[in-house]
Structures are given as structure tokens and as C-alpha cells.
Specification:
A two-stranded antiparallel ribbon has the order 1-2. Strands 3-4 form a two-stranded antiparallel ribbon. The chain is 53% helix and 6% strand. It contains five helices and four strands; from the N terminus they run H-H-E-E-H-H-E-E-H. It starts with 18 loop residues before the first helix and ends with a helix. This is mRNA export factor GLE1. Its main location: nucleus. Belongs to the GLE1 family.
Length: 129
């Protein structure tokens, strides 16, 4: 007969989660996004191993809180760097449109169109992996 899970079965089940743990998960999420941008744009197949690592880390019970994954940290970062994945639209020719589409600025000017396309392709491949 299966038993109901108790509070002892779920790690990190307290009322508070250590801020250092959240910080480390945030740094891990930043690294994952960075890998998707740098490797996934040139070769979308390179995003698969990073995606496997991501799934492993964010699905592991030791890296959860109250039995819930902290994947929201990564999804929030995806929402900032690639809003198109979440339905955001805009005109590439205007300043506000580029901001809405997640174009990155290189100093006072925008990155070149090819660099933007590679960046979005890497993020899309990473999101799919």
C-alpha cells in the first residue's frame, strides 16, 4: 500500500529557502542562457547537451522547494532575453519594436541583424531542448 509523502520525504520544505541557494540557481540559469546564446546559435544541435543538463538540475528533488521545481528562475531569464518565445511582437525597424523583440544593445547601438538572428536561433534551440 503506497503511503502519503511526509515532510521528511521532501527536502527544502521549510518556510524559507536560503537566499544563497536561490542566488546559485540564478547563476546557473544565467550560465545556461549564455551557453544557449554562444553555442546554440552557430550549431543548434549543441543546445541538446545543455538542455539535458538543465532538465537534470531543475528536475532534481534536491534542487526543489516544497516539491516544486525552481525552473521559474530560468523561464524568467528566457522571457527577458527572448520575449518572442512568449508571444511578444514588434517592428524591427523601430527602437521600441527592437526592445520588444529582445534585441541586445552593444553600447549605444544595436547589435547587427545577423548577430541578433544567431542569438535568437540559439535561444530558440535551447528552449526547445
Amino acid at each position: 500500500v503506497p503511503r502519503e509523502p511526509s515532510t521528511q520525504d521532501i527536502p527544502n520544505n521549510g518556510t524559507e529557502l536560503p537566499s544563497l541557494f536561490i542566488y546559485l540557481m540564478n547563476i546557473c540559469a544565467k550560465g545556461i542562457i549564455s551557453q544557449f546564446i554562444s553555442e546554440g546559435g552557430a550549431n543548434p544541435k549543441a543546445a541538446d547537451p545543455v538542455g539535458v543538463f538543465t532538465a537534470q538540475v531543475f528536475s532534481h528533488k534536491d534542487f526543489s522547494w516544497r516539491g516544486q521545481s525552481l525552473i521559474d528562475i530560468l523561464v524568467a531569464k528566457f522571457r527577458v532575453v527572448c520575449p518572442v518565445l512568449f508571444g511578444s511582437r514588434g517592428n524591427e525597424k523601430t527602437e521600441k519594436g527592437r526592445q520588444a523583440l529582445g534585441w541586445k544593445k552593444d553600447g549605444p547601438s544595436w547589435i547587427p541583424e545577423q548577430a541578433h538572428n544567431n542569438r535568437m536561433a540559439g535561444l530558440g534551440a535551447g528552449f526547445a531542448s
